[in-house]
Design brief:
This protein is of the alpha+beta class. Helix content is about 40%, strand content about 20%. It has 10 helices and 10 strands. A 5-stranded antiparallel beta sheet has the order 6-5-4-3-7, sandwiched between helices. A 3-stranded antiparallel beta sheet has the order 9-8-10, with helices on one face. A two-stranded antiparallel sheet has the order 1-2. The longest helix has 23 residues, at about 300-320. The protein is elongated, with a radius of gyration of 29 Å.
């Protein structure tokens, strides 16, 4: 909209001083001719703006004209521009809105804080996604957002991990949470807190029924409960393995959630003993990804499980070789 563009021009000029017309055109994705027409509109409305042509020319506000909103400290100003790097805005369709909002904030900052805020936005980057996190399915947050902000119930078709067919749920949403680059819907189902990965939602529909949340409970409260349930999930099965020192760093990173304690890495031997905790015996099959760089020492049932899995993989490939594949 033209009104939004005029405000953006005003705020950019207020923040930057003299700005070439072609730079404004690029920033606002319009033609240079449109920029000059907008400058004329601003001038006609009483804004003291003028343009100077030539190699060092540009568009500028009359010295001393500005809107100054005070009250933010230097640390508060910097914090706002670190917030811009969180990466969640694109998934919510708010990237353009964020850019516009930050221009307004930058223009409103007290002059002494403005350089520090601008430097912070260029020097601090927060990437919430994990290394090699693997491909994620498409995420459509539109309907989930609609239900969250309209305070309506949701009907979901949701596929759980390890299941082929989705199940149908009617839930009462509290909100959306982005955790390590993954979006989750936090909701109650039959007055019990539940967590739904957004990329496993096969379809969603906003119902006419108003949401039924537990009195006095907010999104942050439910998220804390659900997060503790995941992080404090009981293990109960102690497993001791030995890991080749050359693969130890990678092994510890990939198995951080199963570590019973940090291993003693002193010494120069080839192997390091590591103690892990699993919920059930089959979970230990994931140790096969390290091939002969990891050996299960105890308990016997886990050693037998991993050995049987290794034998099954070997037989699979031997059959393929015999069949000429």
């Amino acid at each position: 909209m033209k009104s939004d563009r005029l405000l953006s021009i005003l705020l950019l000029l207020q923040t930057r001083g003299r700005v070439p017309a072609h730079e404004l055109a690029e920033r606002l994705e319009v033609s240079v001719r449109t920029i000059y027409r907008d400058v004329e509109a601003l001038s006609a409305s009483g804004v003291p703006v003028y343009a100077e042509r030539g190699r060092h020319g540009g568009i500028e506000l009359l010295a001393g004209f500005r809107t100054d909103v005070t009250g933010l400290t230097a640390d508060e100003s910097r914090a706002l521009f670190i917030l811009a790097a969180q990466g969640a805005h694109a998934a919510l369709g708010l990237d353009a809105a964020l850019g516009s909002a930050l221009r307004k904030v930058m223009a409103a900052l007290p002059a002494p804080h403005r350089p520090a805020a601008e430097v912070t936005s260029r020097r601090i980057l927060v990437d919430a996604t994990r290394w090699k996190g693997g491909p994620q399915g498409p995420v459509d947050l539109d309907v989930l957002q609609d239900a969250v902000f309209a305070d309506r119930r949701l009907r979901l078709r949701y596929r759980h991990s390890g299941e082929r067919e989705p199940r149908t749920y009617t839930v009462d949403p509290y909100g959306l949470v982005s955790k390590a680059g993954v979006w989750y819907l936090v909701a109650d189902r039959r007055a019990k807190p539940r967590l739904f990965r957004a990329d496993r939602v096969r379809s969603a529909a906003v119902l006419e029924d108003p949401v039924k949340r537990r009195p006095g409970i907010e999104l942050a409260d439910v998220w804390q409960v659900l997060r503790r349930q995941v992080e404090e999930r009981p293990g109960g099965l102690d497993v001791t393995v030995r890991v080749r020192r050359s693969r130890l760093d990678m092994f510890l990173r990939l198995n951080a959630s199963h570590l019973a304690e940090l291993p003693d890495t002193d010494g120069a031997g080839e192997w390091v003993t590591v103690r892990l905790t699993y919920g059930v015996v089959p979970e230990a099959r994931q140790l096969l990804q390290f091939a002969d760089h990891v050996e299960v020492l105890e308990p016997p049932e886990v050693r037998a499980e991993v050995a049987a899995a290794a034998a099954s993989v070997t037989e699979l490939y031997q059959r393929a070789v015999r069949a000429g594949r």
